[in-house]
Amino acid sequence: MTRQLHLNAFLMNTGHHEASWRLPESDPYAHVELDHYVRLARIAERGTFDSLFLADGPQLWGSVGQRPAGALEPLTLLTALATATEHIGLIATASTSYNSPYNLARKFASLDIISGGRAGWNIVTTAGAEAARNFGLDAEPAHAQRYARAAEFLDVALKLWDSWEDDAIVADKASGVWGDDTKIHPPRHTGTYFSVEGPLNVPRTPQGYPLLVQAGSSENGKAFAARYAEAVFTAQQTIEDAQAFYADLKSRTAAAGRDPDHIKVLPGIVPVIGSTEAEALAHEQVLEDHIVYTHGVGNLERLLQLEPGRLELDAQLPADLPPESAIEGAKSRYTLVVELARRDRLTVRQLIGRLGGGRGHLTFAGTPEQVADKIESWFTRGAADGFNIMPAVLPSGLDTFVDHVVPILRTRGLLRGEYGPRRTLRERYGLPRPANQHVKPVEPAEPTEPVAPVLV
Amino acid sequence: MTRQLHLNAFLMNTGHHEASWRLPESDPYAHVELDHYVRLARIAERGTFDSLFLADGPQLWGSVGQRPAGALEPLTLLTALATATEHIGLIATASTSYNSPYNLARKFASLDIISGGRAGWNIVTTAGAEAARNFGLDAEPAHAQRYARAAEFLDVALKLWDSWEDDAIVADKASGVWGDDTKIHPPRHTGTYFSVEGPLNVPRTPQGYPLLVQAGSSENGKAFAARYAEAVFTAQQTIEDAQAFYADLKSRTAAAGRDPDHIKVLPGIVPVIGSTEAEALAHEQVLEDHIVYTHGVGNLERLLQLEPGRLELDAQLPADLPPESAIEGAKSRYTLVVELARRDRLTVRQLIGRLGGGRGHLTFAGTPEQVADKIESWFTRGAADGFNIMPAVLPSGLDTFVDHVVPILRTRGLLRGEYGPRRTLRERYGLPRPANQHVKPVEPAEPTEPVAPVLV
User: Fold this and answer.
1) Strand, helix or coil for residue B208
2) Which one of B12, B167, B178, B181 makes the best mutation probe of the A interface by having the most chain A beta carbons within 10 Å?
3) Residue A142 dihedral angles phi and psi, to the nearest 5°
4) Is pLDDT above 60 for A308?
5) Distance (Å) from the C-alpha of residue B37 to the closest C-alpha of chain A?
6) Which among B14, B17, B38, B73 is the top mutation candidate for probing chain A, defined by the most A β-carbons within 10 Å of its own β-carbon?
7) What are the chain B neighbours of A34 within 8 Å (beta carbons)?
8) From the record, what ranges are coiled-coil (chains A, B) (predicted)?
């Protein structure tokens, strides 16, 4: 079979365009309605996507005046979606800075069991002082410290998920013996950030543990991904940048002693689709016309850590912005926005228009054929193993993608036509089920007769 | 309408009898299978129960050799059950000692929205060093300190749930204004245990906040219940004890400035039902025959904080047990067990037999008529507002209760025959929706003409 595209549906409110909620078709309460997300999940499943994904941060972002604010907690929402779907993977964002390993490992184990092995965890360290102040801190921890904590968090979580061997349950009714205590392995972890005795109170799950996903592209983020991540979401504006990122991450993963094919790279794309290119561009223009620019300026000033009032709508960004190394928040997003503005010599107004669509992800307006071409070209030219599909407007943008782009990808042999038998999320992404760290691999028995080589 | 019984289905693994998993009918993996709980929830809904409930502790209890161990995380499981049911309330246990208010308040708000106002929180402080050691502590915090933290946790959670006024969302597409920032109220809480800036990132929910449930009967527990709880689960062995507890809690609630009718008292009952009394007793005997007594001795020694080997199976408890005040763990459970053993002069073996059935809750074997009589008598004689139904074997015990006891309670006018329109959990329990603490009550307008008195 041809190498297959991995598609992930990034679900967000009424769409990734910040003004999408103002369109006549949009429900401004959709982001806190289960039915909205059930509908989206089922569309994605009709499109035989590998997975769907919810971003998150444990704080209320800025002013509620601007756009639909708040969100259902992702693990809670995904659990409800698990029962409304059958095949699609379910990836929830959760923070290593503002959770405890025991509780979070248990929630993901529970979701993995309830969904039949479809849980994924987008691991974030959570930038910003707003979140920190909801958890007893005055300011956000330094970037490097957040990543150090994340690494220790993962080590503990992996120990917890492996604390039951797969065959720890005996269930011998006659003798009254339910489990085998010798196959239970408490982590007994004592480290810099955590002390966790364990074991977890959930048996090992269908996937062993959730698919591990990561999305930060800073130096710390890439080092973390190379060590732990099995799928990476990334924002890339050009195929050259995407190729460089792809090659870099694969080689870092190999250097970390892992199979580079066991980390899947998925750039984000905001497809704005029309039956002609002109129709697609007109659709994009309607969205841009609904942007409230005064909001955009404030948001941009916050991102760039500038004093309020520093930016002018019809001027370019100031020349004296600090380097990424001085930023303790979302480093890779900072650099991406600054580089985008400088490369295309955008005014603040133009930059806000671009960001309003995809917050730094690649926005692409065109016909279904053009969108499919773009996807195929990145996929076959070493820039992507798949895509994070981020419709500007939801549900209509996802519907259009599934009805018009997916059939083309199927015809080209890049995407399955149906799911087939139920599989785990990790199997969908072509990854092996991880072995339990407490179980020694079984030595292969001596062959009793010569084995013919298998030709692949 | 006659005063109505409140029924809660306490769902636990293959049943509340510790040996239930060994019966031929029982699935020893049931406790980690969604389908098992979906089936139970639907049986309870067929019986028009007000709610169902999951107990919990963030640790693996003792040896996995003894009985099905571990559990799906309750909020995760209840979210899945929310989509499989329509009317029944969903009460999850969560610990104030091992969660942060922001995350937990958000999860309950999300469940309340997803379930259409059916979320309830059984607030526990979590006894035991095992749990403490999963969260960075060497030993469990002292009992009084756990309750002090719980009270501050509740104050913060209530502020978070009230941080959006009910009408904070404007959704004005034309002007591009989504929310009203003046109706968002960050808690800005700084206290002994928590600093939480807020606001919550979830709008106010159908119930305002989840039904608040509590189950500790120690002095600290009762004081806490009088201040916060809207429903209380309790273990009582005799109607006299239950009446005393009921009267005490109602009067404490009144003394705390609350309406005593706004706290519902639900003792636990383990009904073992047979078509004749002899059949019920025989069923009870089968369960007792499956108990592994060597496990029971170890468990009892742990509960009573005795050295291993101190108890003898065919002797009574030692006379020199410490007073409740010396116990830092589950105080009220300790006293209940010791009093039960002394009152009925039980040997350790007999005590284990009694506890195996309901862990200190009232076990009652009889015909459906006798079970209904028991319930009616406690309900009408000031001992209960309803019951926490704890079948010894699941699902069969719940099935039997719903098929044979529920019809009798309905005939007697004590229990609704059908749910009628969808209601919130708090409405099912006859409780008002709480006002938002930031909204002043509207002064009633001067009547423009005389209002006739309403006769009820």
Assistant:
1) strand
2) B178
3) -60, 155
4) yes
5) 11
6) B73
7) 83, 113-114
8) none
- How far is it, in rounded angstroms, from Cα A455 to Cα A436? 30
Return the closest-CA partner of residue B264 out of B242, B243, B237, B233: B233
The domain spanning residue B38 has which CATH number? 3.20.20.30
Please tell me the total count of domains within chain B: 1
Chain B residues in contact with A197 (beta carbon < 8 A): 130, 133-134
**Helix (H) / strand (E) containing A72:** none
Query: Quick one: which of A38, A241, A217, A206 has its CA closest to A125?
Result: A217
- Using alpha carbons only, give the angle A44, A48, A51 rounded to the nearest 5 degrees: 60
For residue B323, the one-letter residue type is: P
Which residues from chain B sit within 8 angstroms of residue A76, using beta carbons? 75-76, 79, 107, 110-111, 114
If residue B386 lies in a helix (H) or strand (E), which one and from where to where?
strand B386-389
Residues B40-82 have pLDDT tens digits of 999 999 999 999 999 999 999 888 998 999 999 999 999 999 9
- Alpha-carbon gap, residue A339 to A344, rounded angstroms: 8
Q: Residue B48 is encoded by which pair of tokens? A: 């028009």
Nearest to A82 among B80, B135, B173 (CB): B80
Contacts of B50 (CB under 8 A, 6+ apart): B6, B7, B8, B88, B89, B386, B425, B428, B429
Angle between helices A293-303 and A331-343 (to 10 degrees): 120
Distance in Å, alpha carbon of A136 to nearest chain B alpha carbon: 4
DSSP 3-state of A420: coil
**pLDDT higher than 80, residue A446:** no
Distance to chain B for A79, nearest Cα, Å? 6
In a domain, A127, yes or no: yes
**Chain B neighbors of A82, CB-CB under 8 A:** 80
Q: Which residue is associated with the tokens 């410490």? A: B322
What does each C-alpha distance from B237 to A355, B337, B355, B362, B392 come to in angstroms? 65, 10, 12, 5, 16
CB A47 within 8 A of CB A405: no
Residue in chain B closest to A106 (alpha carbons) equals: B73
CA-CA-CA-CA dihedral for B106, B109, B111, B117, to nearest 10:
180
Q: For residues B401 and B8, what is the distance between their CA atoms, to the nearest angstrom? A: 12
Digit-coded pLDDT (tens) for B417-445: 999 998 999 999 999 999 999 998 776 66
Structure ipTM: 0.93
Task: Supply φ then ψ for residue A169, to 5 degrees.
Answer: -90, 125
Provide the residue range defining the domain that includes A32.
6-295+357-428
The torsion angles phi and psi of B415, rounded to 5 degrees, stand at: -140, 140
Residue environment code for B340-351, b if the CB has 16+ CB neighbours within 10 A, otherwise e? bbeeeebbbbbb
Encoding tokens for residue B84? 């499989």
Q: How close B291 gets to chain A, by Cα (Å)?
A: 8
Name chain A contacts of B85, Cβ cutoff 8 Å.
Answer: none
Residue B334 lies in a domain: no
Spatial contact of B23 and B290, defined as CB atoms under 8 Å apart = yes
Helices (H) and strands (E) in chain B, counts: 15, 13
Q: CA-CA distance, B147 to A387, in Å (whole number)?
A: 49
Nearest CB partner across the interface for B196, out of A134, A180, A201 = A134
Question: Lowest mean pLDDT: which of A315-329, B80-94, B337-351?
Answer: A315-329
pLDDT tens for each residue of A21-63: 999 999 999 999 999 999 999 999 999 999 999 999 999 988 8
Q: Any idea how long chain A is?
A: 456
- On whether residue B254 sits in a domain, the answer given is yes
Contact A121/A94 with Cβ under 8 angstroms? Answer: yes
Question: For residues B117 and B207, is the Cβ–Cβ distance under 8 A?
Answer: yes
